[in-house]
Structures
1.
Amino acid sequence: MSAEAHDHGHDHEHEHHHKETFITKYIFSTDHKMIAKQYLITGIFMGIIGVGMSMLFRMQLAWPEESFKIFNILLGDKWAPDGVMANDIYLSLVTIHGTIMVFFVLTAALSGTFSNLLIPLQIGARDMASGFMNMVSYWLFFLSSVIMISSLFIESGPANSGWTIYPPLSALPQAISGSGLGMTLWLVSMAIFIASSLMGSLNYIVTVINLRTKGMSMTRLPLTIWAFFVTAIIGVVSFPVLLSAALLLIFDRSFGTSFFLSDIYIAGEVLHYQGGSPVLFEHLFWFLGHPEVYIVLLPALGITSEVIATNSRKPIFGYRAMIMSILAIAFLSTIVWGHHMFISGMNPFLGSVFTFTTLLIAIPSAVKAFNYITTLWKGNLQLNPAMLFSIGLVSTFITGGLTGIILGDSTLDINVHDTYFVVAHFHLVMGISALYGMFAGIYHWFPKMFGRMLNKNLGYVHFWVTAICAYGVFFPMHFIGLAGLPRRYYTNTNFPLFDDLQNVNVLITTFALVGGAFQLVFLYNFFSSIFYGKKAVQNPWRSNTLEWTTPVEHIHGNWPGEIPEVHRWPYDYSNPNHEEDFVLQTTPMKPGEEVLHH
Amino acid sequence: MTSLLVIIVLVLLAVALWQLTKIFDLTQVGSNRDSSEVATDNDNNIQGYLMFGFLAFIYIFSIYGLFAWGGLVLHTPASAHGALVDNLMNISWVLLFTVQAITQVLLHYFAFKYRGKQGQKALYFADNNKLEAIWSIIPAVVLAGLILYGLYAWTNIMFIDDEDDTVVVELYAQQFKWTARYAGEDNVLGKANVRYIEGINTLGVDMSDPYAQDDIVVSELHIPKGRKIHFKMRSQDVLHSAYMPYFRAQMNCVPGMVTEFAFEPVYTTAEYRELPYMVEKVSHINELRAKKSIDIVAKGGTALDPYTFDYLLLCNKICGASHYNMQMKIVVDTPEDYKKWVAEQALLAQQVKESKAAPADATATAGATTDTVAVKDTIAVSVIAKK
């Protein structure tokens, strides 16, 4: 390998002749484009599991007294005897659904796919700064996925103390079935996941800083790159804190320390723990947990910026304001974690501070939303599936974001904390929005990844059914939350008070099942198009950015010749000085042409 | 049966899908059939109209939701500070609905209005500082208002003045049950720690503490209307959250520390049951339960009891497998009824004494085992004392 690298490494023009085996090309590949595809396909697989779980527990919530054969088939005799779901496994499904969707799909697969694919291609680099580290990052992610999935098959069941794994529940096997081996596997998996994520993030940061092509100044970067870059920084700042929390929890669980535990009497005996505090864990967890929302969301917003500008045939409105708002969101995201803890027992004065910082974050968010809307204004909108998902993202981002103003206000949070109102809020603003961003990215860059096109009509069907179902699921959910229905209840039948919410639950589940089923359309479209999709042309969306100047067939080093030089910003759509409605970043400025944006 | 239903649903979905793609395909007829999978003018047209339709969907669904489910939402707060919370909530809602209504219209209407045509060029409009300033400053000002009101309310609710004439009550959480301890006449709770848990003293009250002598332990919470109740919360095992939605009150119970919340109930249970909205809600729930009972009886079960409203204390922090059924009834009494109720309750100190005496009596007849039990007890007590 090293000899070969020496032979060809210096001369990029010939590098694509370099002979690859199946293993170096498809498995232990160091090519960022292949790694992106690996992330995507692993992510899709995890997504199927995560979404599938939500279908099961939604069925349980809608029809708590029915038995379903499918429960028995999927969960087995121990967890669903005669098709009746057990309460422990309900909590496991909720926990693992959250973990998989937040970390494995919306963090790893979203960032992993699009940062890997687009950073080198859009900044004009041959590959990531360290291809080897990139490969290791993917394989650690793969390993952590395998461990997480394997925890589904152990006898005592997977972790089931919620994706936030608050101790003491997560620390004491006596407290709940999943806090034994299930929790151990969860923690090990997440520790490896964090290592993977950090390697990825460092690579992205270094690549963006060092490997930009000639002329690609920071203010000529596409907003996708800005989003990925800042996301990586947030990840590097906050993920280590979760790692430390996980390590301390492992210590408490296995080595008898008392970081998070104190004064516990369980199963008829007093445990030796003294002096720790679960609130400390909550601080550490949410120091990652809240920035995590933006780790999930910013890449989706970055993708949306790019897709909306390209398909509006119009410059993104307020390019610099968009960068400033990304930076502002990133900064504020690290000082708002306490709004998850208003009623945790921490000093109410802290609650005041966190209310203040939390509501501040609405300002840059509002700027982004308005800028997207203004970008559409007087555009020449090409309503491709990617564009629909991006518009859908702005819609759910606004709807979900607005209720954040209620939850971020400590006074109002008292009564809606941990109810379905919260579930509705975060699913819209980060779950659905980020998924839309991911879908937009897939529809938009599929030709770049696979050299073929996705079927647009299937894409349209996919979008419209998903859009209606997403609102159908989460809009009514606000009401049952405001009615005081706590989340993470396996059934509400013990509270006649909530009997009048049951019809709403059935409606929500119906929308969820239909919406979930229609994701099969996407899966079919995705996998069949890889092999049978229509061949893509080099620049199908007539886009300005550098990735569309590379050949359709993937080659090592991305560009066959020299790396192109960049002469302008990425959003010169419908520039009045040019005939065409797009101007590649590589097009030199005409003599006397002025820069039209600020 | 269910699997058959599932199969039918799946088949129907597949048919619906096939029909939908067919429709999209048919719309291509006549237009330049283009195989590039990039949106054509025709696509832009159809999708633009669908965007407009989607806007209608959001609006109709929202308005339908407000009518259909608006009545389910918590109403009339049963605590003094609740009015403040609900007021802020209502102000926030007016604001949010306004912003939502405007932005969704703009977004979807633009998507419809500016749907693309070949050969057309968009307006090159990259920046405008005035606009940017407007939509940074307006949210900032509005939010400043909300923050100030919110902080005012929060400070009022959360900072408990001990000088007030409060009733001190301990809420004690354990998997999966709530217990309440009243401070008694001295209004000071006796010291407690899980290490004192023994026999009937399940809350781990330090029985040697003078303040503990008049403490009362009960499993149904009674509180008087019109006085501030100062809750002190403890948990013996994992995190729990004491959630009293009708009082707009919630606080986590954390092992190893005491957390606090205080509120003043303003409706007795009897009064709250008589509120018109509650009468309606309860009769609606009972209709649903009656309907469900018919099915249950048909299957040979017993009919559901009719429901009467009671305030509840729910656990609202995942605490274990039976988290979904951790509740305690709360009764708000008139001050007179409350006094009467308190007078009827046995003191914990009394109960502990009796329980210690009882096994001794029982074992006395059984013979020699008495001594060993007594010895064990004294050892346990001395261990505690050392700590």
Note: Chain B touches chain A through 128 residues (CB under 8 Å).
2.
Amino acid sequence: MLSKVIKSVLKPNQNQMRVLAPFMTSTVMKESGTTSATFDTRPYKLHKLEEAPNTSTTCTRDEALLYYKQMQIIRRMESASGNLYKEKAVRGFCHLYSGQEAICVGIKAALEPQDSVITAYRDHGWAYVMGCSVTSVMAELTGRTQGIVRGKGGSMHMYCKNFYGGNGIVGAQVPVGAGVALAQQYLGNGGLCIALYGDGAANQGQVFEAYNIAKLKDLPCIFICENNGYGMGTSVDRASASTMYYTRGDYVPGLWIDGMDILSVKEAIKYCKDYCSAGKGPLVLEVATYRYSGHSMSDPGTSYRTRDEIQEVRQTRDPIMLFKENIISANLVTAEELKQIDADVRKEVDEAVKVAKTDKEIAVHELAADVYSAPIENTIRGTTPFEPYTHQRLSKVINWH
Amino acid sequence: MTSLAKLPRFSHILRSITATNVRYIPPSRLSSHFTYYPDTVADSLGETARLNLFQSINQALDTALATDDSAVIFGEDVGFGGVFRCTVDLQDRYGKDRVFNTPLCEQGIAGFAIGVAVGGATAIAEMQFADYIFPAFDQIVNEAAKYRYRSGNLFDCGRLTFRAPCGAVGHGALYHSQSPEAYFAHTPGLKIVVPRGPVKAKGLLLSCIRDNNPCIFLEPKVLYRAAVEMVPTRDYTLPLSSADILDEGEDVTLIGWGTQVHVLREVAQLARQQLNVSCEVIDLVTILPWDREAVFESVKKTGRLLVAHEAPITNGFGAEIAATVQKECFLHLEAPVERVCGFDTPFPHIFEPFYLPDKWRCLSAIKKLVNY
């Protein structure tokens, strides 16, 4: 019933070319009340894999609206975070995800409830797609009570069911992700673990230790290198002897994905899920992307790359712009509908910012909370003698079944 | 390369300052509150320049590269100056083969640095934050520290210095605030040094670089810009394992290092004003091997000791000092040794002002010491 799919002008293996090509297309299909369209996926690159993910993918109207909204929320949230940081309302560190939205939204779109995710410190968008409200993300940034962890973690430490966080140390989350995958294999819950890291972290030794043990035990783990071109202030070419990150698992098969195209990301993850559920073990993915901001707020992001380069990506590869053009020209949604979403997003984020600025901070006794499961001493050593802080547990563990 | 013997060692002419020199940093939720007490140096040391901590470290590194052809500097993003600007301009001056970026791999950086040093060059490696040093723990503790011992002195990696920014910065939260000195102090073979300001930092860093043992040089990051002093522009070293007595006193000895020294100097003033108690303030300077004699001498005189550090209290380096002092100065002690430290919690995100061993907690401990 699908109408003809117009083939991409890009042939396989030409996908390194950073050109905006009319890769998609589609036809609106009305069938039993649903509206959907088919799009070509961007060509993938394979490492030790026989079969590639599908060359086309279907997107429904509802999905299109959802993905667009999620990406816009993240974009808006990140620009609000940047502003809050500059206003000194955010303490701690702050790493923005702008430019990389299609990755978390695309991956999440292919996951099932039992699947897990762990990432590094660029985690605001991930926390949101995994189920945290915009308000709880923004309030965590400013260290307020309505924050995800009541303001005790801050930008780098956000969590929710099956989202193992925001981790502060470069690369340290990758072996943890392999461990989560082992737990899932052992518990037989049919889930897998997505372990994300950047092109900078890809050079940490423990990443390779994780590949090895994951392959040894054929764990349902998808290692995903989000290659945004720069590990802090050093470009990939100057930091990595091989920048083909999807091949760096060597004996672990790999896949390169254009991370600026949300539907290609989603289709690839569907493929990976099938691969993992068949018991074939881990995969190493490289998702090509770009970050518009600096590494963190102390990095203006312009000393090691040109403003023109950033501008060019914004104009030719922006994940939200591309998706918007695609779904409009496929007649899946109208420009007016998207405009309405933009307005709703603005309102939602603005309201969250208001809460983040005005909500109360937690009381100081929580400083001594949650250090141990059940401490032998009731008070925490070293705390002030006139007002010793009593140890306490405040929340229930959410990830024990 | 300048001969070590010819380099001036002038810690004895570092002079205490007068109250008028004190630059007051107002307490704020956004920065650790302490009053910075700058060091001044004798005119005989020649030309000086007004430098903050990162600039003085930059000058020390510049001197190290200029005086030692084999010296190389590497670390994450050091090529364009590093996140704290300590290596700024050095790549332009000395070339990309002597000042270069590494991938983000601390264990690799440490192992690489050990190899560079054992192979005969002088290695100056930067860990971007002391909190990131733990992937390199094995290399530092098992490889660097034991190289000489395990090879019966046939090999060593003494020409090795790790620099790492440490300590509270006002907003660093869990992974940009830690003070890991005590972890490494458990390792014979290493030297651990923490400067309190620009003048000390330049001389101590050059000493570490030229010392024939692997050194860890922990730089209190809050001082990078907040600490400004007139620093001699010449090449000089300062002795390692030599504590500085900054304020002489009779009743209580206060020991700290890094930023905490400045807290303690203010505490000493408060104690004098509010309690009429005379405090002797000691900057330990080198955590390992530490200047035991200076501490014993002072405690035997005062009979009371307060040690304060930002790291958590349990097994912090204050524990080692307290244990040693009770053994060596037992009959001189008028009160049990007091420790005012970070709490036994992770370094908190929003509660940093409560966690830090601030002047009020220290002052309260002094009251306990004198009222015992």
Note: Residues 61-86 of chain A form the longest helix (26 residues).
